[in-house]
């Protein structure tokens, strides 16, 4: 009898261990806001990011991971798997006073993950619409949400213009006064990690930080000449605190962590994208090539290397679903990149759309090594130097970092062609040298344009005014 009980106990132990290992992995998706290509320590020793550096260097650094030129479109890609020009979010960003939104008929990433039992939590910046409750995070698949709806706000006062913008689920929330937002978000993330049982539940934690979007506010102004350096350091510290708890609580045994920026850095606020050309809100590589990496203790078959395979922000949607054991819909734009990320196999992606914006009358696509730009790439068209102690703001045009509401007037030729493989910094327009390639790329762009959904870029609505909503930017006016 004792032997039988011993065998039974062993069987139960083996079964439980197998069940635990078979549970879908935990997924933590961290998105930095406006982080420049060169604003991370693994590329630029001026930046102090030891926690991010350690994760990146022990994981897989992604050298050809593309995002959209500005905030809303990239977040649309992550949550939907569709290019923005297929959802109407290709132009500019959703403004706080306008009824823009990601279409409500789209099944979001957290909604798909909940189909296989994930608990889903979001902490940070939404920026995908809020004029109606149905467009907000807890109605789009998240079990909980702490953060803000709009593009930007103060790191301490959580206000933008005349309104306050900070929520906990569907209630206005006031964090401890004087606490920096990166700390607020990290503490909420840690509370979630402590509340979930990592052995019995699969967690999807979406962490789109406010950092390092303007306003340039940090925690130690008297001691830092470089505001942005300090802001990036605060982000790094928050990630370090979160990963410490991930390890202490046992999540790392079965976890995939993704880190990416949402767009290139705005040089007018001290960001840097060297050696890439351009900045946030441009179609240049400096606006669309994102600092990114993946990390896992157990799930990646090959680590500690630089992955140069092509991927786009829309690819995270089917890739993360693959990791979770969910089949993505066949009609999305994203491709499953898991073999490429985990084993460094050739990327299934051979081309992608940077953007198609019928209002700005510009577009860009990549096919193989070639990149075609139609119309003006944007306002910031140079290669901007690193900031200095004397001049912490980069030399850049004194303009808004967001897209103009009108078509951009530019001296750039109507079509430019670059060989990104051999000229990743876009110094040499080869359109005149290879007119036949330009014609082929123009035909391909025309094919993409056939499926364009008109931009959902409505004018401001007076009903959004915070004075009608107890001083807050609140849903319920569209």
Automatic annotation (TrEMBL):
GO terms for molecular function: metal ion binding; sulfuric ester hydrolase activity. InterPro entries: Alkaline_phosphatase_core_sf, ARSB, Sulfatase_CS, Sulfatase_N. Keywords: Calcium, Glycoprotein, Hydrolase, Metal-binding, Signal. Residues 1-22 form the signal peptide. Residues 453-478 are annotated as: Disordered. Transmembrane segments: none annotated. The keyword Protein biosynthesis does not apply. The keyword Phosphoprotein does not apply. Its cofactor is Ca(2+). Residues 25-326 form the Sulfatase N-terminal domain. It comes from the Eukaryota. Pfam families: Sulfatase, Sulfatase_C. PANTHER family: ARYLSULFATASE (PTHR10342), RE14504P (PTHR10342:SF273). Belongs to the sulfatase family. This is Sulfatase N-terminal domain-containing protein. It comes from Sinanodonta woodiana (Chinese pond mussel).
């Amino acid at each position: 009898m004792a032997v039988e009980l011993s065998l039974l106990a062993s069987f139960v132990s083996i079964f439980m261990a197998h069940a635990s290992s078979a549970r879908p992995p935990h997924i933590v998706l961290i998105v930095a806001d406006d982080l420049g290509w060169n604003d991370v320590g693994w590329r630029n020793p001026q930046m102090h990011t030891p926690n991010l550096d350690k994760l990146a260097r022990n994981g897989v650094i992604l050298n050809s991971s593309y995002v959209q030129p500005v905030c809303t479109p990239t977040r649309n890609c992550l949550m939907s798997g569709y290019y923005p020009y297929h959802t109407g979010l290709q132009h500019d960003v959703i403004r706080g006073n306008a009824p823009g939104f990601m279409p409500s008929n789209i099944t979001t990433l957290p909604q798909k993950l909940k189909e296989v039992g994930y608990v889903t939590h979001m902490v940070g910046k939404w920026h995908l619409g809020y004029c109606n409750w149905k467009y907000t995070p807890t109605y789009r698949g998240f079990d909980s949400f702490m953060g803000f709806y709009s593009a930007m706000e103060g790191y301490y006062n959580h206000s933008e213009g005349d309104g306050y913008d900070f929520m906990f689920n569907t209630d206005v929330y006031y964090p401890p006064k004087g606490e920096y937002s990166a700390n607020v978000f990290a503490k909420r993330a840690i509370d979630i990690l402590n509340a979930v049982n990592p052995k019995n539940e699969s967690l999807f934690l979406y962490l789109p930080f406010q950092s390092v979007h303007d306003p340039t506010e940090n925690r130690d102004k008297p001691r830092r000449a470089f505001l942005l350096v300090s802001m990036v350091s605060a982000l790094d510290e928050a990630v370090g605190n979160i990963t410490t708890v991930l390890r202490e609580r046992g999540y790392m045994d079965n976890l995939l962590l993704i880190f990416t920026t949402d767009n290139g850095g705005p040089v007018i606020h001290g960001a840097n994208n060297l050696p890439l050309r351009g900045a946030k809100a441009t179609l240049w590589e400096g606006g669309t090539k994102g600092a990114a990496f993946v990390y896992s203790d157990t799930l990646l078959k090959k680590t500690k290397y630089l992955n140069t395979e092509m991927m786009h922000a829309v690819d995270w949607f089917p890739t993360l679903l693959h990791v979770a054991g969910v089949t993505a819909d066949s009609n999305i734009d994203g491709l499953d990149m898991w073999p490429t990320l985990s084993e460094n196999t050739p990327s299934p992606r051979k081309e992608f759309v940077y953007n198609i914006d019928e209002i700005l009358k510009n577009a860009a696509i990549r096919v193989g090594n070639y990149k075609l730009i139609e119309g003006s790439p944007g306002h910031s068209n140079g290669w901007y130097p690193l900031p200095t102690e004397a001049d912490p703001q980069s030399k850049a045009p004194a303009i808004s970092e967001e897209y103009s509401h009108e078509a951009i007037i530019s001296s750039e030729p109507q079509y430019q062609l670059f060989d990104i493989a051999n000229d990743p910094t876009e110094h040499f327009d080869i359109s005149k040298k290879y007119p036949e390639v330009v014609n082929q790329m123009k035909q391909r762009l025309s094919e993409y344009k056939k499926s364009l959904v008109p931009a959902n870029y409505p004018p401001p609505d007076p009903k959004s005014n915070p004075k009608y909503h107890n001083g807050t930017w609140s849903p319920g006016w569209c």
